[in-house]
Amino acid sequence: MSDKVYDVPSQWAQKAYVDDAHYQSMYAASVNDPNAFWGEHGKRIDWFTPYTKVKNTSYDPGHVSIKWFEDGVTNVAYNCVDRHLETRGDQVAIIWEGDSPDESRKITYRELSAEVNKLANVLRNRGVEKGDRVTIYLPMIPEAAFAMLACARLGAIHSIVFGGFSPDSLGGRIADCGSKVVITADEGLRGGRKVPLKANVDAAVNQIEGGVDHVIVVRRTGGKVDMTPGRDVYYDEAAAMVTDECPAEPMNAEDPLFILYTSGSTGKPKGVLHTTGGYLVYASMTHQYVFDYHPGDIYWCTADVGWVTGHSYIVYGPLANGATTLMFEGIPNYPSVSRFWDVIDKHQVSIFYTAPTAIRSLMQAGEEPVKRTSRASLRLLGSVGEPINPEAWEWYYHVVGEGRCPIVDTWWQTETGGILITPLPGATKLKPGSATRPFFGVQPEVVDAAGAVQEGACEGNLVIADSWPGQMRTVYGDHERFEQTYFSTYPGKYFTGDGCRRDADGFYWITGRVDDVINVSGHRMGTAEVESALVAHPKVSEAAVVGFPHDIKGQGIYAYVTLMDGVEPTEELRKELVAWVRREIGPIASPDLIQFAPGLPKTRSGKIMRRILRKIAEDQFESLGDTSTLADPGVVEDLISNRQNKR
Ligand code: PRX
């Protein structure tokens, strides 16, 4: 915690969309009369048929239902592309910066229109219609944005799977939503290394009964891949056969736009479903106000489109606003640790949005790689994905931003569709480590374990008392799970899964997850997923996974593993298990530390006491709490004496 405060610079208060007084009055209006507020702001997108109803939402247990602008008709691709053609057809929509600094490309809104329509026609020729699901497994190349918008244009529901997920994870996601079409690339390229995307798709599809009907393969590296006749087609060959005109399907505001799988505390990843109208209104409005986006800004969000940040703040929000959005294929330290700053200079980026884990890793390389670049174009910095520690915040502010650029620390989730708690740069003073105040229409509350709402300065669990337009609508195919996961812990409220503190100024400080979800380098991971991967190994009898504090990643993955009788706990087996998890889930789930444990701390009823495992992983041996309810208190001593050290 830091008690530093940075006041809003006066030129920001004057030039930004909102200053503090304006924020206060808009916020009050947004929560006092959401129908009037969103009825007005819903007009920021174009509607084929205007809505007459605005908010129709219920958090009532057993009847959770969320609808916004429900009788309006529109199309997301129309809003992100077509409506800009008349006024800014020749403006750059997407700047693409390749993995290698020698490769970049600029795509105007007019070119974007042609590309999206072609891809939509390629899908349409393969039978894709409104409501069909299409899985996208692409690297960070412009075709990823074209594919998203092409689906939106046809009314097909895209499900993007991050390129770092294994064939198993990909297959599970294709099967869960019943995609019949997959869009991929021959290979991805990251930090000079190739990622075998098409081979992964082949392996994934082979596990699915009935397979898929079509695999569309974008040539990225030109590497040789297996093509299954009748099923697989190279995108460039298919695109050569179609026109660049394709009508935009009229979509009801509540028709689905996309599914994005995310981890929870139990079970397999959930298909978070977002719909059309409310999502786009919310993504575009937050993009404009939070980043104080003005025409002429060059805006860069370093996320991957495989995560929600890429959906809302690389593609949909910025393009709905007619912005120039930069898409980066590479990684922060290739070919050098100056890469981010070099790209900022090369493309004259004015708004830069990245994750604390990237900041921490670059901070380790010192100031020189930053200072050798200019960064004069920068005027605003953003952070997302996990709590930012004050040291990283200060470094970002003073070294990267040279004390000139406000930092917006944006708290939100896959489920929320857009940013919920954040500073507005012309309105909100900054406190390093605090996401500060709610965005318009967002009503955060802090509750204690029993659900009692806390007043004033307090600490507890973060809930949101009422709906906002960008909220997820359901878990795809499992509405009951949606209600259970988010609305049953504190009935009548949306439970975020995060803990938080509210200070005397009413500022929020997110303290991290209070459930069995961990956040590794800003990637969300369910400990249960890693556990089930581990126990699938023939030599493993039992596993328990917890997070532990990690200097760069924020949290690392700590696995306690009990082996089958007679299996030797060797260093080799440890490596084998790490490789196994990588193969089962993907590299982002690799355990950092594996401790072989003859026994796990369990209650007499057999429940694993994770609280104790967490404390051991955190080196907090003194605060293990009550261990007297354990079936065998002796296991704790063994666990402590064999604690694995951070490497
Ligand atoms: O714990 C919070 C953390 O990331 C979780 C959501 O993860 P995901 O759905 O993958 O979305 C990440 C990008 C929006 C949250 O429950 N989180 C995200 N942003 C912040 C954060 N924690 C603290 N501060 C943030 N700014």
From TrEMBL:
Binding site for Mg(2+): 535, 537, 540
Single GO MF descriptor: ATP binding
Record-annotated AMP-dependent synthetase/ligase domain positions: 82-466
Pfam families in the cross-refs: ACAS_N, AMP-binding, AMP-binding_C
Span of domain AMP-binding enzyme C-terminal: 529-607
Keywords on record: Acetylation, ATP-binding, Ligase, Magnesium, Metal-binding, Nucleotide-binding
Source domain of life: Bacteria
Signal peptide (residue range): none
Cross-referenced Gene3D superfamilies: 3.30.300.30, N-terminal domain of ligase-like
Co-factor(s): Mg(2+)
Post-translational modification: Acetylated. Deacetylation by the SIR2-homolog deacetylase activates the enzyme.
Function: Catalyzes the conversion of acetate into acetyl-CoA (AcCoA), an essential intermediate at the junction of anabolic and catabolic pathways. AcsA undergoes a two-step reaction. In the first half reaction, AcsA combines acetate with ATP to form acetyl-adenylate (AcAMP) intermediate. In the second half reaction, it can then transfer the acetyl group from AcAMP to the sulfhydryl group of CoA, forming the product AcCoA.
Name this polypeptide is given: Acetyl-coenzyme A synthetase
